[in-house]
Amino acid sequence: MTKYLYGASVQGIQRFIFQTNELKDIVGASELVEFICTDLFKEMVGKGWAESNQIISAAGNVKYVFETEAECREVVRTFPRKVMTEAPGVTISQAAVELGDDFTQAVNELEGKLRSQRNRPGMSVTTGRLGLKRSPQTGLPITSVDNNEHLDASTCAKRKRNNTPCLCQKSFGKAVKLQAGTSIPFEISKMTGKNDWIAIVHADGNGLGQVVQKIGHQIDDFKRFSHALDRATIAAANDAFWKVSPEGGWKGTIPVRPIVLGGDDMTAIIRGDLAIEYVAEFMRQFEKNTGEGELRRILEKAGMERLTACAGVAFTKSAYPFYYGYTLAEQLCTRAKKRAKENNAATAPSCLMFHKVQDSFIMNYDEIEKRELTTAEGNSFCYGPYFLNKGQEPAAHYSIDELESLSRMLDDEQTDGIKTGIRQWLTLMHENGGKAAQRLKRLLTMNESQRLLIEKLTDGRPLEKDGKVYPAYDVLALHTIINQQTKEERQ
Asked: Does 398 score more than 50 pLDDT?
């Protein structure tokens, strides 16, 4: 009997999740996406559901094997309507192909059909006539009123799910006792600490395409790989959470909010001073977990020992639009991947890039780099990426440990004058290279005991073209995010 490989993909996940800047709606939206790919799909399959037929069910993607054409047709007919009813504003693409002996061929054919479906605009259930009153947050027609707050259908659906801690429980681990509204924040202000900086983190695995091409010809191998990878990613998120948790755990609001977790993807909102430590531990544990047990044996068939990951971290003030912050984090992750591949290693090493947003709403990192991080003389302050493992970084690059070490060296009260001097030097580098050189010479003369620190901050490595790139900007930015105090810190 012919079997059928079914695939579904939630389109525009980030747009749906970050449609507003209300954390309670972001929380509900991320839980909705998780619900669509797991419980809702299982509900639509019904009594015929079999765990053994599930290939992927995470991060907005579903792949499932149907035993009969009739079962497949029924889900194709009913699933999109159910999704749009449960989560107004979500668009879902779906396709199905006959499953033959070569699973890779079937997957490639399925992905091609899904790409075609994404290019076909679907009819939205959230559109309305011009004369209808609309939500000032989303621009969608208002459908109900809750405590004098006018809500559209999409926001209502998110609010119904925002007290469901499934994604948080998966990200933090079963040992963490969660309670919506107390341990899980509904307001971003409750996630901040001694200052207003938060971080949007996006991490993504490296080399998955290479693995799938080599081991994906058999459905059982692909299924085991997908499930094992999902477990490894979740375990890495659990370890990263405990890494930044105080001894005894968080007593009040947990300043970490997972947005997407599954497959090789992780997106989270986190208190600014915890972000680098959190994402570094995630990448470290991701490497460790993918290099052990069943996943290690699967990867060896593809000629690999483990998987690595790259990440982007966008530091923003809590009032900054989350959607712009996520877009920047994604672009930083892509840039880190590109730079890591230039290392010519068999597997791209784990690394991260970050940026502290201090300008208007600009989503394009290339524009930020050109306008804020490049001087008129062609020098640059875009020093990343920062590599997880010492010895894997190219010459003159820093590891994450070295970045954090330099930041800690600025904690001493004796370095206050140095921080001011370096900031003045950075400003002069944009305005006049000659004056910047004079300011640096004076700074070294007046702070002979701190010469090594100053030189580490201002010693640039050559760019491929003319000019040099310097680490001072990144180190000062990270130090400010971790140490700046603008309000009383919550306990």
From this structure: yes
CA distance 392 to 247: 32
pLDDT at residue 57, as a whole number: 87
How many other CB atoms sit within 10 Å of the CB of residue 77? 10
For the CA atoms of 82, 88, 90, 91, the dihedral, rounded to the nearest 10 degrees, stands at 60
Cα 228 from Cα 255, distance rounded (Å):
28
For residues 239 and 281, the answer to whether their CB atoms sit within 8 Å is yes
Q: How far is residue 111 from each of residues 7, 96, 106, 454, measured CA to CA in Å?
A: 8, 10, 9, 52
Helix (H) or strand (E) holding 170: helix 166-172
- 462-to-185, 396, 406 alpha-carbon distances in Å: 45, 9, 20
Yes or no: say if 474 and 383 are a contact pair by the CB < 8 Å rule: yes
**Cα–Cα separations (whole angstroms), residue 406 to 32, 171, 211, 440, 457:** 41, 30, 37, 18, 8
Q: How far apart are CA 455 and CA 6, in angstroms?
A: 58
- Dist. CA 406–CA 466, nearest whole Å: 26
pLDDT tens readout for residues 338-397: 998 887 666 889 999 999 998 776 668 999 999 999 998 999 999 989 999 887 777 678
Structure tokens at 263: 């497959």
Rounded Cα gap, residues 192 and 178, in angstroms = 19
pLDDT tens digit sequence for 104-128: 889 889 999 998 887 775 655 555 5
- Judged against a pLDDT cut of 60, whether residue 280 lies above it is answered with yes
pTM: 0.90
pLDDT in tens, 46-67: 998 999 999 988 878 999 999 9
Residue 424 and residue 336: Cα distance in Å, rounded?
A: 29
* Residue 469 near residue 475 (C-beta atoms within 8 A): no
Q: Which of 22, 216, 183 is nearest to 110 (CA)?
A: 216
Please list, in sequence order, all residues whose beta carbon lies within 8 angstroms of the beta carbon of residue 471, skipping any fewer than 6 positions away: 383, 398, 403, 406, 456, 457, 460
